[in-house]
Structure formats: structure tokens, C-alpha cells
Design brief:
single chain, 4-stranded antiparallel β-sheet, 40 strands, Methylamine Dehydrogenase, Chain H, disordered N terminus, 602 residues, 6-stranded mixed β-sheet, binds sulfanyl-(tricuprio-$l^{4}-sulfanyl)copper, mainly beta
Length: 602
């Protein structure tokens, strides 16, 4: 509407006040823009991301916290940080690792009986229904010490950690099958599955890769360890994975980067690891049928039991047409399945191309038993050309991919070029590119790895920030950059410094899919999510003595603890059970005993 028409349409009072406001606002805005050196583009970016006080975000993002072992939660588009969820590492604000209930969760992550107080939290993943995110639970893997955690999104608390019984390191987790049947966790560096010593000279015979299918019980919200199993893989150093969906449901895919089975040895005059591991032009994309593996695993004839855990050997998988290999450009990185499940997009890392494989072509080759050969372990190899839809030259260091809501459109990160490329994987052409700061690893569009990506925002997870923020010492924050992808050109709108760990990957979800609790139910153990056997109600407070063991059943409302005085003798062993009777929102309190390393959050 032109200004003249607007004037005619409005009563005089409104015209005057809105005009005064507009004149005042634009002159003040101009002055601020001038004083702060802001462009119109900056103002637009601010207007797109700013949330006035009390306004909520459209999406919540769950970021791995890298070596902090935690998960970071922030909002899009505001990029405000909301929470750190303690997962693999004790965290006093949440009382995590300081009360008996959370200590039990951390104990699930013990390895060979050893307590682990850190993790490299790596790839978060939501529970899914028909490949869409449901917002019930979040999984995250520990890359350094192969473990998997379950976070209940009703409470944003870690409720379970399981420790992998056969692999020694992992990268290809956590990837969820489309109806949350299993959470996949693939090993990274090949190692003996029996965890005994075998010399490196026996690498080909005694070292193995593997992928564990952790069975998730959606009703209980817990992983069922007894029903979980592992598929043995060759010692090719498996990398990232993804589960099929739609037409590829039932299948899963894993990259690898050392089909040379090279084990280094500069001391003996051999080439360094990196060179030895990238001698071949190709590595192998592993294609396996997880549904069939799970079926096979039910028959004891088909499994080897290692460390009390069922492992389906390579030869059993091969004999049942459940495992195949396809050459892929050497040392690839991410493999990402398209929303319809028809295409697999593989980042070249050492190749300037991304490769797009067509699942229907792969399936045809499998059904026709049209093999190009077999590897050392007898696994059928499918022809690369016959499996490919095509390749696109993107730039240096293509790593990861996330999808747009528009058919065929996706985004790939270029680590070396520090760019995000928007391209069409069906028509195989580049559409747009944008520079990021700096050295991007993962990226994510909103719900970008589900069957229904949203296509409005994209996050670039940059590993370096260099000069973007105020200097805070040699250890810089990472930089998560928010990119508006709703228009024909990608626009950078926000830089969020992440001051915790090396956040590797994020998953994002529409905020209205989450229905977190406002308070805990009184008497609940928040980690088991069942009534606590020690729950104490008002009037039941007591101190029980049994010899020199003193057990206190106390209640707490705000900072008032009942009983107020607890008298014990020197040398008594005192156990305090505290029940918070608080019913109001946002009224948590700490509890501490000085000099005893005792602390809780109620
Ligand atoms: Cu690409 Cu470990 Cu997911 Cu890092 S990973 S970039």
C-alpha cells in the first residue's frame, strides 16, 4: 500500500501517532546503524533472529558437547542456549554424578569395571516414527569410549548409559532406524572383539570392525541389552553410518576408510598412517540388512557369543544375503540417506566430489546377484558405476549433508573450503554456495535428516572460530552459524560461540513436538522414572539408627529441610534421603555437606 492510500484509510489519531513513531524509530534506527556500523543486511538478520522477552523459539537444537561429554540445547532462530544436559560427565548444577540415583546411570557406562568420568558425545539422534522425529527420547554416542546414552525428553535427563561389550572405539552412532526399533553404533578403529591382546601383525585375522544393533524398548524408554546384537565387519575402519528409510527401510549403510588394512609403522620405515590408509583409490561402502541380521541373531546357530553378547559373523551375514560392499571414493566421511530413502549421498573428504548412490539400482544388483567380485572376507562387491546415480564436483573436503524441504535439494559442508554448498542431488548440479567461519564439520537443516526436513534454517558447525569473537585465550570457542535458507540465496544471520567441548553434530526438532514436564511428580526417582523406595511425605520425616548406621528420611520445600537438626556421633555412617515436596515451577534447590564432596540438586 502506498503511503498516500494508507493515510486515507486511517483515522487521524492513528496517523499522527504512527507517523511520530515511524519518524522517531527510523531516525533512531539510522543513528544506531551509523554508530554501530550496521548494514541493512545486518538489521534484517537481527530482525529474523531476535526474540522479544518471553517469545519462544520455533525449534530446539540438541548439540553434542564433544569432549565435555554433555549435550547442549539451544533455540532457533534466537540461538539462545537453554541447557546443558549432563550425559557422560558428572555435572554438579544438575546434581548429576553426586546423588545415588544419577551415579547408577553413570555406572552403566563403566568399561571393564572402570568408572568413566568423561566422554566424547558425538552424534545425537531422536526417536523416530516412520522416519519422522517424535521428540520422546534422544540418543547420543560416546566416540572415545564406545557407549550409548538415552536422554528422556520429558525431563531432559540422562536415564541410561550402556557400554558396548565388543568394540573399542566408534564413530557410526547413534543412528536410529525409522521406527526406533534399533539404534546403530558402528566401530571406528578395528580391534579384537574379544578384547584380548593380539599383535598388529595379526590384524587381518584377529582385528575386526563391527556394528551393534542396540534394541530400543520404546514403551519402557530403555535399551534392552539382552536383545541387542552385533554384526561382525572386516577391519576396514568403519566411519559414519545411516539407516535406510522409505524404499531402503530395513537396510543400513556404513562408510570405511582403511580397506588397505594399513597399521602404520614410520618406526620401521613404512609410510605414515594417513598415506598408507589412502593408497587405494576406493574404500567400501558397507550395505547391510539390519532386519535380517536381527532375525538371524535369534538362532543360536547363527551367532558367536563374545563377552556374553551375540555377534553374527561375516560368513553368516554373507550366506544370508545380508551384507554387501560397494566401492566409494577413498576415505569418505558422511553417508546420508535422502528423505525418501532412495539416494545415499557420500561426502568425498579426500575427493572434491560428492557421490550419489541410487538404492533401487543397488537393490536390483543384490536381487540379481550381479556381483563385481568378492573381498578378502568373501563379501560380495557390487559394481560402483552400476550403483551410482552420479557425482557432483562440490569443492575441497565435502563431509556431511542435510536436506531441504524442496525435492532434490540438499546442503553439503566443505571442510577445507569452509563453505556450505546447496545443490540438487537428483539433477546433479550446484545451486548456490556460502562461506562460513571456519572449517565446517557437520551441518543441519531443521529436522534435516528426517523424512520431513523443514527448509527454513541451516546450522553450520564450524570447528574453528579464529577471529569471530572476543579472544578468551588459546582455546577458542567453536562457532555455530545460523543460515537462512528460505530464499534463493543463502544468508548468514547469526554466530553462536559454543564454549564447551568440540560440538560435533546437532539434531533439531520443531519445539511443539516436545512436551517436557514442568515439575517432577513428588516421590519420583527422576532417573528410573519410578516412585523412589525412599520417598518421604510430610509428617513421615524420621531418623533411624541401626548400630552406627544412621538413615535420615528428610523432606525439603525451598530451603527448609525437615528435620532441621540431625545429631550423629563421630564415626557414624550417615545416609540422607531427601524428598522435595515443592510443587511450584522452577523452584529447585541445592543440598550440600561441606568438605565431604556431597551435593545434590532437588
Ligand atoms: Cu564429521 Cu566425528 Cu560426525 Cu566430526 S564427525 S566432522
Amino acid at each position: 500500500m502506498r503511503v498516500k492510500n494508507l493515510l486515507k484509510a486511517l483515522p487521524i489519531g492513528i496517523i499522527l501517532s504512527s507517523f511520530c513513531f515511524a519518524a522517531y524509530a527510523s531516525s533512531e534506527l539510522d543513528a544506531i546503524m551509523k554508530a554501530r556500523g550496521l548494514s541493512e543486511k545486518d538489521i534484517l538478520a537481527a530482525a529474523k533472529t531476535y526474540q522479544p522477552s518471553g517469545r519462544k523459539d520455533e525449534y530446539l537444537v540438541f548439540s553434542s558437547g564433544g569432549q565435555s561429554g554433555q549435550v547442549i540445547v539451544y533455540g532457533v532462530p534466537s540461538m539462545r542456549i537453554y541447557k546443558y544436559i549432563a550425559v557422560f560427565t558428572p555435572e554438579p548444577w544438575q546434581g548429576y554424578g553426586y546423588d545415588e540415583e544419577s551415579k547408577k546411570v553413570l555406572e552403566g557406562g563403566k568399561i571393564n569395571g572402570r568408572a568413566m568420568t568423561w566422554g566424547d558425545s558425538h552424534h545425537p539422534a531422536f526417536t523416530e516414527k516412520n522416519g519422522e522425529y517424535t521428540g520422546d527420547y534422544l540418543f547420543i554416542n560416546d566416540k572415545a569410549n564406545p557407549r550409548l546414552a538415552v536422554i528422556d525428553l520429558k525431563t531432559f535427563e540422562t536415564v541410561q548409559i550402556v557400554s558396548n561389550p565388543v568394540i573399542k572405539s566408534e564413530h557410526g552412532g547413534a543412528f536410529v532406524t525409522p521406527n526406533s526399533e534399533y539404534v546403530l553404533e558402528a566401530s571406528q578403529y578395528a580391534a579384537p572383539l574379544d578384547r584380548n591382546y593380539h599383535p598388529l601383525e595379526a590384524f587381518e585375522n584377529a582385528y575386526r570392525g563391527a556394528v551393534t544393533l542396540w534394541k530400543f524398548d520404546l514403551d519402557k524408554g530403555r535399551i534392552n541389552e539382552a536383545e541387542s546384537l552385533t554384526l561382525e565387519l572386516p577391519p576396514y575402519n568403519q566411519d559414519l553410518s545411516d539407516a535406510g528409510k522409505g524404499v531402503s527401510d530395513g537396510w543400513a549403510f556404513i562408510n570405511s576408510f582403511n580397506t588397505e588394512m594399513y597399521t602404520g609403522g614410520i618406526e620401521a620405515g613404512l609410510p605414515p598412517n594417513e598415506a598408507g590408509m589412502s593408497r587405494n583409490d576406493h574404500d567400501y561402502l558397507h550395505v547391510f540388512n539390519w532386519k535380517k541380521i536381527a532375525e538371524l541373531g535369534k538362532d543360536p546357530k547363527n551367532v558367536k557369543v563374545i563377552n556374553g553378547h551375540r555377534v553374527v559373523p561375516i560368513e553368516v551375514a554373507v550366506a544370508n544375503d545380508a551384507l554387501f560392499l560397494i566401492p566409494e571414493p577413498k576415505s569418505p566421511h558422511g553417508v546420508d540417506v535422502s528423505p525418501d530413502g532412495k539416494y545415499l549421498v557420500i561426502g568425498g573428504k579426500l575427493d572434491t566430489h560428492a557421490s550419489v548412490y541410487d538404492f533401487e539400482k543397488i537393490k536390483k544388483l543384490i536381487d540379481a546377484k550381479d556381483y563385481a567380485g568378492k573381498d578378502t572376507f568373501g563379501i560380495p562387491i557390487l559394481d560402483m558405476k552400476k550403483s551410482l546415480h552420479g557425482q557432483v564436483e562440490l569443492g575441497l573436503g565435502p563431509l556431511h549433508t542435510a536436506f531441504d524441504s524442496k525435492d532434490g535439494v540438499l546442503y553439503t559442508s566443505l571442510y577445507v573450503d569452509s563453505q556450505v554448498v546447496r545443490w540438487d542431488y537428483k539433477k546433479l548440479k550446484v545451486l548456490d554456495r556460502i562461506n562460513v567461519h571456519y572449517n565446517i564439520g557437520h551441518l543441519d537443516s531443521m529436522e534435516g535428516k528426517s523424512t520431513k526436513p523443514k527448509g527454513d534454517w541451516l546450522l553450520a558447525l564450524d570447528k574453528l572460530s579464529i577471529d569471530r569473537f572476543n579472544p578468551v585465550g588459546p582455546l577458542h570457542p567453536q562457532n555455530h552459524q545460523l543460515i537462512d535458507i528460505s530464499g534463493p540465496k543463502m544468508e548468514l544471520t547469526y554466530d553462536l560461540p559454543i564454549p564447551l567441548g568440540e560440538p560435533h553434530d546437532v539434531v533439531s526438532i520443531a519445539a511443539d513436538k516436545l512436551t517436557p514436564k514442568v515439575t517432577f511428580d513428588i516421590g519420583t526417582d527422576s532417573r528410573t522414572e519410578k516412585p523412589s523406595p525412599y520417598a518421604t511425605l510430610a509428617g513421615q520425616e524420621r531418623v533411624e539408627r541401626d548400630g552406627n548406621n544412621v538413615t535420615v528420611y528428610a523432606t525439603m520445600v525451598r530451603s527448609h529441610i525437615n528435620p532441621e537438626r540431625i545429631t550423629v556421633n563421630k564415626g557414624d555412617h550417615v545416609k540422607i534421603h531427601l524428598s522435595s515436596l515443592e510443587r511450584a515451577q522452577d523452584e529447585t534447590h541445592g543440598f550440600a555437606v561441606d568438605s565431604m564432596n556431597v551435593h545434590a540438586s532437588l
